[in-house]
């Protein structure tokens, strides 16, 4: 009798413990269906292996609806910490250690063909402007005034006796540094400060530039896609996603919501968006905004002066001087007063004819002049791109402010749509379904090992208590 009193509670405890232990094991084991003599053994496979796909779907839905909701993700992406990280990434990508702006990084290299086509178009337009009637008239007036001034300083006898030397002296004086500077200023006046680029360049050139952008749209799209899938950019974004998930949901959230899967989903949506969006239209819209700005807003003053100076020096070159000298010697011109009297006051018209000859000479040699100017302009552009630009703290702060405004606008208007398209629940479901059953068991046990152990011991305790109650009932 005494042995029964002792043994009954112990046996009850063992049965309760064993029953719960077996029940818990049957949640996972066996991993696959078992058969005996061709007959399916009941409760095989275990509950979780059998219902793993339904469980994965349910977990994905719970995470999407209650944990990683659109509002939560957007809120975290717009948090001060995230915005600070974005600003740091941009500054690290664009600014050098000394705080200067690296344009070569911003432009992502140089497209030689594109640059050549732009320079060719600019030179063509510059020649159109230079050889316009207004510009030619201004140059003619300048030269005419100098000719009259010098012809009135010498007597006719001196000029006749020393005709060649006098003409040479006249031309040397005409092509002085002072006059070159004056001519440069006249050309520069064409690029008026209050003119917009659209007024200056003309519709034909603008249409050509827009056409180039359209032709290069595949390369532009590929550059965007390469950036999205690049190691540096993707690693930074994945790290930020992981930080958001870990800080918000802890180890459990990080276990089911993988940054790689989320980023791949977002990148896939971005790829589709880039593929279906006309990038050239967007760029042309921004180009149109720039064309509507005044010249002074976008072109540094020193660059404009340099181009105008090159044109002025070419106009007043040695070749032009020699040609004009031959024309004067062949006509055997006399001083201004004599010519004006002989021509009945038509000396100004004669000087205008001389200038027409100069313009004709320049027009004849336009191709050589363009070839001379092109490498100079390209070198200047490359030098400008390669030279870091010192930015003030105020400018950097303003740049960050505008960047964050653009970032916030993109997040609010597009990220929610991308998240819905990416379908977080589907990503999580697919990720869980890639787990081996054993790995899934280890994951669940790692989370609830203490609780399952407590349930097992609770079964033993209940068995022990129930056995004692039965003894009392007897």
Describe this entry's structure for a reader.
This protein is an all-alpha fold and 474 residues long. 82% of the residues lie in helices and 2% in strands. Strand 1 and strand 2 (39-40) form a beta hairpin. Helix 14 (217-229) runs antiparallel to helix 16.
Which descriptors would you attach to this protein?
474 residues, mainly alpha, 2 domains, two-stranded antiparallel ribbon, 82% helix
Order of helices and strands: HEEHHHHEHHHHHHHHHHHHHHHHHHEHHH
**SS element count, helices:** 26
Total tally of structural domains? 2
Largest sheet: 2 strands, antiparallel
Beta-strand segment tally: 4
Mean pLDDT: 72
Summarize the structure.
The chain is mainly alpha-helical and 474 residues long.
What does the secondary structure layout of this molecule look like, with pairings?
Elements: H1 2-28, E1 35-36, E2 39-40, H2 47-50, H3 52-67, H4 70-77, H5 80-94, E3 100-101, H6 103-107, H7 112-130, H8 133-151, H9 156-161, H10 163-174, H11 177-190, H12 197-201, H13 203-215, H14 217-229, H15 231-256, H16 259-276, H17 279-291, H18 295-298, H19 301-315, H20 318-331, H21 336-342, H22 347-364, H23 366-386, E4 389-390, H24 393-422, H25 424-433, H26 437-473
Antiparallel strand pairs: 1-2, 3-4
Helix pairs in contact: 1-26, 3-25, 4-24, 7-13, 7-23, 8-11, 8-22, 10-20, 11-19, 14-16, 15-16, 16-24, 19-23, 20-22
């Amino acid at each position: 009798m005494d042995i029964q009193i002792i043994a009954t509670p112990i046996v009850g405890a063992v049965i309760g413990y064993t029953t719960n232990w077996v029940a818990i094991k049957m949640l996972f084991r066996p991993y696959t269906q078992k058969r005996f003599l061709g007959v399916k053994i009941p409760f095989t496979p275990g509950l979780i292996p059998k219902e793993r796909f339904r469980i994965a779907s349910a977990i994905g839905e719970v995470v999407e609806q209650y944990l990683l909701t659109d509002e939560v993700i957007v809120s975290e992406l717009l948090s001060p910490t995230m915005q600070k990280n974005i600003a740091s990434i941009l500054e690290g990508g664009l600014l050098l250690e000394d705080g200067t702006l690296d344009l070569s990084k911003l432009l992502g290299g140089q497209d030689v063909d594109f640059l050549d086509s732009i320079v060719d178009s600019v030179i063509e337009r510059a020649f159109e402007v230079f050889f316009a009637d207004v510009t030619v008239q201004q140059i003619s007036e300048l030269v005419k005034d100098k000719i009259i001034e010098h012809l009135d300083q010498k007597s006719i006898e001196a000029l006749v006796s020393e005709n060649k030397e006098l003409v040479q002296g006249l031309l040397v004086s005409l092509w002085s540094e002072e006059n070159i500077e004056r001519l440069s200023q006249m050309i520069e006046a064409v690029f008026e400060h209050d003119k917009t680029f659209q007024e200056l360049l003309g519709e034909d050139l603008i249409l050509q530039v827009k056409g180039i952008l359209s032709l290069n749209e595949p390369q532009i799209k590929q550059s965007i896609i390469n950036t999205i899938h690049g190691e540096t950019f993707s690693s930074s974004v994945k790290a930020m996603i992981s930080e958001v998930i870990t800080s918000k949901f802890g180890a459990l959230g990080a276990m089911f919501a993988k940054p790689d899967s989320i980023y791949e989903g977002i990148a896939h949506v971005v790829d589709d968006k880039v593929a279906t969006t006309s990038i050239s239209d967007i760029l042309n819209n921004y180009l149109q905004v720039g064309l509507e700005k005044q010249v002074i807003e976008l072109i540094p003053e020193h660059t404009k002066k340099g181009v105008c100076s090159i044109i002025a020096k070419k106009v007043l070159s040695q070749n032009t001087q020699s040609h004009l000298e031959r024309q004067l010697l062949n006509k055997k011109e006399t001083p201004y007063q004599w010519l004006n009297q002989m021509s009945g006051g038509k000396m100004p018209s004669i000087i205008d004819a001389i200038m027409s000859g100069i313009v004709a000479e320049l027009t004849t040699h336009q191709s050589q002049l363009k070839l001379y100017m092109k490498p100079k302009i390209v070198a200047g552009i490359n030098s400008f791109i390669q030279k870091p630009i010192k930015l003030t703290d105020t400018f950097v702060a303003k740049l960050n402010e505008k960047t964050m405004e653009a970032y916030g606008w993109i997040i609010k208007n597009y990220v929610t749509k991308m998240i819905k398209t990416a379908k977080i629940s589907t990503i999580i479901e697919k990720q869980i379904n890639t787990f081996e059953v054993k790995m899934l068991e280890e994951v669940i046990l790692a989370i609830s090992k203490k609780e399952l152990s407590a349930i097992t011991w609770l079964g033993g305790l209940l068995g022990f208590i129930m056995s004692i109650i039965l003894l009392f009932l007897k």
